[in-house]
Amino acid sequence: MAWNDDLQINTPAHEIAASTHNRILVLAGPGTGKSFAMKRRVARILENERVTPKEILAVTFTRVAAEDLHRELLSLGVSNASLLKGKTIHSLAMSILMRSSVLVVLGRKPRPLNKFEIEPLLSDLSRIHGNKYARKRLILAYGAAWARLQEQIPGYTRSATEQAFADELVAWLIFHNAMLMDEIIPHLYQYLLANPGAPERTEYKHILVDEYQDLNKVEQEVLKILGEQGSMCVIGDDNQSIYSFRHAHPDGIRQWSLANAANEHSISECRRCPSTVVRMANALIGHNSGQITERQMSECAANGAGEVVIRQYGAISAEANAVIEKVLSLISNGVTPQEIIILTQRKVFAEPIFRQLKERGIPVKSYYSESELDTIEAQERFAILKLFLDHEDRVALRWLLGNDKKDWRTKSYKYLMQYIYTNGTTPWEALTSLSDGSIVIPYSEKLLERFLEIKRELESLQEAENIYRFIEIWLPENDKTALLLELVSKYKEEVTTPQELYKKLYEVITEPEIPLDVSEVRIMSLHKSKGLSSPFVFIVGCVEGLLPSRSNPNESPEEQLAKIEEDRRLFYVGITRVKAKLPDRLGYLAITFSKTMTAADAHSNQIIPARSIGGVAYFNASRFIGEMAPHAPIAQFNTPL
Question: The pTM is what?
Fold first, then answer.
């Protein structure tokens, strides 16, 4: 099958695939077929330009998108397509760093931290860097090579205070033989910048980048260096830029064409969404400033109007029940679970829906990062497994030594670190020596007690005669670890050793990307839904104070506006997940929100209410609902979906 089979001449997809320009920008809204155009372009390059697959770099935002590109090329029958594999920016960076021995030279070990393992790190970092949330923000800035803004040059700190933080952070990571995933890109950038003769700088003749709007400045600079000697095709949509917490900015794609004298293409027809949703989305995103052009999606008349409902409920429990009853009704009427997506920005909305659907026997899967490790008990089980496999896993040991204390035993742990620095030993060796009385470390009594508890458990695990007995001892049935146990039960027949079990669990837990073939109702954040579509979509918890979140009064008016506009783009992404699949799937979108929840739940989930009285938090509808007028239906109160 040729690259242009079934590809109509003079259509945007054909023009993009056929273009021989050196720099190409493709602007495409949701559901317009940009990924299809990218795949056909790769197919044409392989067929017509006599380049090898190794000379083409296709960068995708997720591993699943990379796998989808590979499958599509194989289905087209393109010669040597099996040798071309798309890569995420992080997998690309890691492969180059390992190949060039950069991490070895730097004395770094690529042992990434799980999300829950960040907590002792935050506790150990000095308080002079601000409170816990300030330290988190500094870690994110460090991962973006300190280029928080699009106009900033990455690679160096902006102040002595930032440099002091970076030094302390890196020292902790080196001591614990660990890395942050976000460190990988800055290390690659520094390597490429410092080595103009690096082979990677001339390795690729063609680079294609999907979802360019979600790259931060240092990621953009890495791809710019890699693409200096070849052609580049950048694909994305500034209206779907939703990763400012990683310091990505819509100006990245907005400015790319001007900076590169690019040949521009635009795809506007939304072939996914019902016409009502297209009109709502256009009205919503029209409130944002700074867009590349006054472009809007155009409707595909064949998709029909679809069905959109907007509901307010008196309390969060009533909202959850309404969603659950509608899901049950859909499934009883022939809708398959995999056709349903439930989106919400906080687990306080997701958890009761997930739990009750599961109790009613509905296949359901949560795609929140590390959702199987949501409880401290599940986190402890995972850390124990890591330490069982490697007693010198310093991060796991550090976490276990402090997880039962609010202050993570930071003071006594620092005395342990000082001893290790001075004597050139390891945490496990030092604590073992402390336990047999051969050394003395100040303020270490409670630390030692906890270590001995950990050691006794690890010794009991050594006695397991097979993997089944190991799992029984390591993960006994407990409501607090039910999700982790469910996952273990799913894979225990596929593994024979604790090492194999850990490898499988780590991959599934830490990178919960949504596979192309699913069989469950999917529950996830709006961020996670990027790239997905479904005939039945619910967006739950659409309250002011969450969508959008409340502005930080310490930020400038420009920063506050930028945050609101990103939240608007996020909502735009959410509503455009709904897909018309005629004749029997018209495309259904439900937008729900509650008047009240407990003030404690609102506070713990960082949702800012309009007011709180007597332990009850009161909410108003998200402003974004009103911004979709007059195309959105009028909201109703306490009526079924």
Answer: 0.87
